[in-house]
Amino acid sequence: MSSESPDQVGSTFDAVAEAGQGLSAKLLPELATLLVLLGLWLGFLSQWLDIAVEDTVIWLVGIEAATVLFLVTLVDIATRLKSPPPWWTGVALVVGLLIIYPEVLGMLAAGWQLGLWVFLPLIWSLLERFRELWTMPRASQIEKYRRRALSWGRLVTGLILCGLFVAFLLGHAVVSDDYLDDEALFELLALPMLCLFYLIAAFDAWRVHQPGFARQPRSLWPFLDSGDTTRI
Length: 232
Hints:
By secondary structure, the protein is mostly helical. The protein has helices at about 5-40, 55-80, 85-100, 105-115, 115-135, 140-175, 180-205, 210-215, 220-225. Helix 1 (about 5-40) packs antiparallel against helix 7 (about 180-205) and helix 2 runs antiparallel to helix 6 (about 140-175).
């Protein structure tokens, strides 16, 4: 027999109902990126899109690398705020984060040079993230746990996949005399591993909106975060 009280059951039900409303907003961007990458990898999009696979991989890896620590820090601050800050405090926090993580400004500068079709989505995405400084303090506790779990999971997933990539290169250099040029590396590993990254991110977005997460919030890699997901 379940040991949950009626209040606990009701709280879990409310969290699941709220989760259903936010799942598509978190899941669809990851799935859309994954489908495009799979189409490029398997060659399905080559007849419609004139996109260099190498450029796509470099840009996505660059965006993730430039923003992941910035977003983890931003989410950590936003989920700890008890109330929305005054506008000038929020602006000061944003400026401070951009000083700490100047690679974000470098990414925006590179996007500007490539044109508005690249720059506008980047700046819009960052503005949406900045908005969390004012919206996240009003969010429910479980939503704060979701955002913390997703940001931490994204960071650790990237580190793990980078570690596997480096381990493969070192292992290949030890056991094989064949030299892999940049193009061969992209075809062999870079794009498949990027697909795996967004597949894991999509799974994590689905996972944090399930009843199990509402009952026991934790990150995708709980053995690495020491409970930081719920430490607010």
